[in-house]
Design a protein that fits this description.
Strand order of the largest sheet of chain A: 14-13-2-6-4-18-19
Structural class of chain A: alpha/beta
Pathway (chains A, B): Cofactor biosynthesis; NAD(+) biosynthesis; nicotinate D-ribonucleotide from nicotinate: step 1/1
EC number (chains A, B): 6.3.4.21
Largest interface: A-B, 112 and 111 residues
CATH superfamily of the largest domain in chain A: nicotinate phosphoribosyltransferase
CATH class of the largest domain in chain A: Alpha Beta
Strand content of chain A: 15-25%
Pfam family, one (chains A, B): NAPRTase
Family (chains A, B): Belongs to the NAPRTase family.
CATH architecture of the largest domain in chain A: Alpha-Beta Barrel
Oligomer: homodimer
Number of domains of chain A: 2
Keywords (chains A, B): Glycosyltransferase, Ligase, Phosphoprotein, Pyridine nucleotide biosynthesis, Transferase
Number of helices of chain A: 16
């Protein structure tokens, strides 16, 4: 049994920077941090924001218990004064950003975190861990769902990623449009449809395939899905329909040439009168494999490895950068680093998406002085991309839990539909709309 | 605050298979399951087993609390009788396998799990999640450590993977030979050296770089590492030595041409008398980048994205397959599936590594009847690769915690040193030794 809070899911430097800035006073400077990425994974047309609901959960849980404080003190990571400050730590700032399910592009200001330097700097690693992984999975899921058209995709990838990442991946797959998950903890935590068939071991532990099918039907009813590729698929399908009758819910094929096999199995099922029996395929599917199965008589896809590893892009390169902070006189000062190839754009940002003929044509990122930003008038029909998630420490509940997640799935489908259709191409290419950065005087 | 046990970190079908087999009696059949992989990631010469200590922790924690049981019942995933069985679930079987840190190859029987079908089948996803991710990270870490020769590598990758995966990655990096981690939860849980410098935001929140350096030195002493690439590296190095004196511990460079910059900074530091000040580099390093820095005056490497994503291979394709189960008369029966391209080798296995001139030359995997295996005599000098981790439900403590982890690091270094030197090449190629599967009559 493990009890945890996320307060040590951080890099050490966040606490040593807190310690140093508490001593020199800059820990109390109001700041704006921004999450963005300099580039999408190579060839991708858009990114998908995911993890916002989890991030808000983590923010609520982010406080240090006695054993955390003792660890920081014993290791001399922070001094006694800082321990005292941390005892009462609760994030009291504000967070706004792109909605969960929103699409994003290079330099989109995906998240803005406002608060004192001390309270914001502690969140860097946690925020990035959540957004980088969840968004990677959601982006892969979104492409797979596009490739699958109206056929449902199901997450079966838990075994191919860290056991906790598996839960996050199941959730992120829903953002991208998946319809269910094999992962029970995700199903429990987020009230999601849990799905499953049977493993080959289930067939093998029985004296015969027929025994296994009979057992599964007896326990789960005829609407269950039988795994038919343990020995010989043709014989298995015959046995399956003999055992379950033509009302058999489905069969799963997990090996071989899935298109050819699906066609043979469909014909066999139809000949046996099992015309409503569904065919599920699994076997290292990615968006390209799914697209190649478009003309095959497949009813649903179970996706594993390629989902949970982001289909070649297991992380998103999002970074968390200070863009503005107060001077001694309290005025806000845009700041930026000038590191080679990694320079940042100073100042808090506004973000809008403009449309032409109802299709997105540009991401507008606007920076400038606080006064200039307040006075800024967006173009006609520009959509504001920034939503408040946390205001002065108060977390808006609508973005969390099951409801927040389903809203994100819905939001994503709509956001994707408003992108030029090139976004739905699996071909490698540039981001489907440009990001224009305007600096106001 | 979250309290959890790993019992729902499973795919639903594990519970529905349990339910069905409890009804038909096969849940009680003694079984042997095996973890193996059909192939290494493309071009890799060896794999590294990691996660054994975490797996043993999870095994101890694997039992269902009331809310888990209620979830399974409410969703009708299992029936009342199965709920009753699950109330008392504790794994009472045995687990043996390759030591943590051991190298492995295609078809190495990495883990063998013995027990009833019911108790073993529940563990599939959890075991695979842990081994697949941890081993992917450890393999990447091992290659990076080889490339770094005697220079220490440090984990700074937490922000580029799921927040829990980050903890597992930090731990797995130690198996591969890393010397420390930025991740505080990993440092706390496994008593590891925590490392860190400062972020660019620390420089930016101060009115000047000099202010930032003075603050860091005041809080952390002159032995700290200052980040010098926020604005202009040459000026920053000058300021750093002015502020800290020639005793400055180190500087970090996080952008640009690291080899050229390290050389310039080394010369500048030496000219300023800071001849013992170390240079740490970070910036999307992988094993190839590290190798290319061999001749640059770099003292240590901070590795992020490429570590936690397995440097192109974020998972290991390990599977968990039933290889043997009891018949009704109690005799053990080797079993195997015959799925196209995914057939398995029946029967429990023995595993040995043979050596020639003190270098490994072959992995021998032996299967056959229980009697034949008992009678098998390995060749002279063959090393037995299977170690008992759990015997009849009793978990051996030596493989867990800090000590187990450091033993794994040590074990890995020795196992790698006994492989032909080709293993240490970063060039793509075949597994460095073959796996020979012998079936005894």
């Amino acid at each position: 049994m493990v009890v945890f809070d996320p307060s040590l899911m951080t890099d050490m430097y966040e606490y040593t920077m807190l310690d140093a800035t508490l001593k020199d006073g800059t820990a109390n400077r109001p700041c704006v941090f921004e999450v963005f990425t300099r580039h999408l994974p190579e060839g991708r047309r858009y990114g998908v924001v995911a993890g916002i609901g989890r991030l808000l959960d983590a923010l609520e849980d982010f406080h240090l218990d006695d054993s955390d404080l003792k660890f920081l003190a014993d290791r001399h990571i922070v001094d006694k004064e800082t321990v005292k400050w941390l005892e009462n730590y609760r994030f009291s700032g504000s967070v706004r950003g792109y909605r969960e399910g929103e699409v994003y592009f290079p330099n989109s200001p995906i998240l803005q975190v406002e608060g004192t330097f001390g309270e914001c700097t502690l969140l860097e690693t946690l925020i990035l861990s959540i957004l980088n992984y969840d968004s990677a999975v959601a982006a892969a899921a979104s492409r797979m769902v596009t490739a699958a058209k109206n056929r449902p995709c199901m997450d079966m990838g838990g075994r191919r990623t860290n056991e906790w990442a598996a839960v996050a991946a199941a959730r992120a797959s829903i953002v991208g449009g998946f319809k269910g998950t094999a992962n029970l903890l995700a199903a429990k935590l987020y009230d999601l449809p849990a799905i499953g068939t049977a493993a080959h071991c289930f067939t093998l532990v029985h004296d015969s395939e027929r025994d296994a099918f009979e057992s599964q039907i007896a326990a789960l009813g005829t609407n269950t899905t039988l795994l038919v590729d343990t020995y010989n698929i043709e014989e298995a399908v015959k046995t399956a329909v003999e055992v379950a009758g033509p009302e058999l819910g489905g069969v799963r094929i997990d090996s071989g040439d899935l298109a050819a096999l699906a066609q043979r199995v469909r014909n066999q099922l139809d000949a046996l009168g099992a015309t409503n029996t569904k065919i599920t395929v699994t076997n290292d599917l990615d968006e390209y494999a799914i697209a190649s199965l478009q003309t095959a008589p497949v009813d649903s896809y179970g996706v594993g490895t390629q989902l949970v590893t982001g289909s070649g892009a297991p992380t998103c390169a999002m970074v968390y950068k200070l863009t503005e902070r107060a001077n001694n006189d309290g005025t806000m000062q845009p700041v930026a680093k000038k590191s080679k190839d990694k320079a940042t754009a100073p100042g808090a940002k506004l973000a809008f998406r403009s449309y032409e003929y109802s299709l997105a044509d540009c991401e507008h990122v606007i920076s400038g002085s606080p006064n200039a930003l307040r006075a800024f008038q967006p173009g006609e029909g520009w959509e504001n991309l920034l939503t408040d998630f946390v205001v002065d420490g108060e977390i808006d509940p609508q973005f969390r839990g099951h409801d927040g997640l389903m809203a994100a799935q819905d939001y994503h489908a709509k956001a994707l539909a408003k992108l030029p259709i090139t976004a739905q191409s699996l071909m490698r290419g540039e981001p489907v709309i440009p990001t224009q950065l305007d600096v106001l005087d």
